[in-house]
Amino acid sequence: MDEKKAAILGEIPRLRRYARSLLRDRDSADDLVQDCLERALMRLDNWQTGESPRRWLFTIMHHLFIDQMRKVNRRGEAAMLPLEAGEAVAQPAEQLEGIASREIINALQAISPDRRAALVMVAIEGFSYAEAANMLGVPAGTLMSRIARGREELRGLLDDTARRRAIRIVEK
User: Fold this and answer.
1) Average model confidence (pLDDT) for the chain?
2) How many domains does the chain have?
3) pLDDT band for position 33 (50/70/90)?
4) Residues 63 and 104 in one domain
5) 114 and 160 fall within a common domain
6) In a domain, 67, yes or no
7) Domain of 129: which CATH number?
8) For 154, phi and psi rounded to 5 degrees?
9) C-alpha span between 37 and 94 (Å, rounded)
10) What is the spatial distance between Cα 21 and Cα 24, in angstroms, rounded to a whole number?
11) Distance between CA 124 and CA 139 in Å, rounded?
């Protein structure tokens, strides 16, 4: 039993990263991770020993996220919380890599949650299309469509950001 708990604890950084990419709010993301861990520990017998708990935990988290979104939509409240001012940009970036990273993160946050979840699962977390489709509960074709549309949307957003940055540089 302790091996299972240790394996689950080892996945917390990945769970936090995925939760933050879904919710855009550190506190809400931490709450989602905690809910996921609670559910996982209550249903520890559902996880098969010898396998990585990663897929199982990400599936639990995704289902909790969808449930949370449905509750919010029923109440008529805003589904996504804006980044706090201090969290968005703590200090101006001094390196181009820092600026590019922030632009990518902001663009990723601007796309729809379904597309963002699909992109994060495959491009960042490294799950295969089949694994991600299974965890998200959609057919593989739907997942691939979401990824393609999400990538296209990201390209458009990043092209606009690069154009605006170039215009600012010229204006100085």
Assistant:
1) 80
2) 2
3) very high
4) no
5) yes
6) yes
7) 1.10.10.10
8) -60, -45
9) 37
10) 6
11) 20
The CATH number of whichever domain residue 57 belongs to comes to: 1.10.1740.10
pLDDT tens per residue, range 144-168: 999 999 999 888 888 876 666 655 5
Token output for 83 = 């980044």
Answer whether 117's CB lies under 8 Å from 62's CB.
Answer: yes
CA–CA distance, 137 with 7 (Å, rounded to integer): 24
Q: Of 76, 103, 126, at which residue does a domain stop?
A: 76
Residue matched to tokens 């599936």: 59
If asked whether residues 119 and 153 sit together in one domain, one would say yes
pLDDT digits (tens, 9 = 90+) for 47-81: 776 677 888 899 999 999 988 888 877 776 554 54
- Helix H or strand E encompassing 14: helix 12-23
**Res 79: pLDDT:** 46
- List the domain range (segments joined by +) for residue 165: 93-171
| Eight-state DSSP code of residue 50 | T
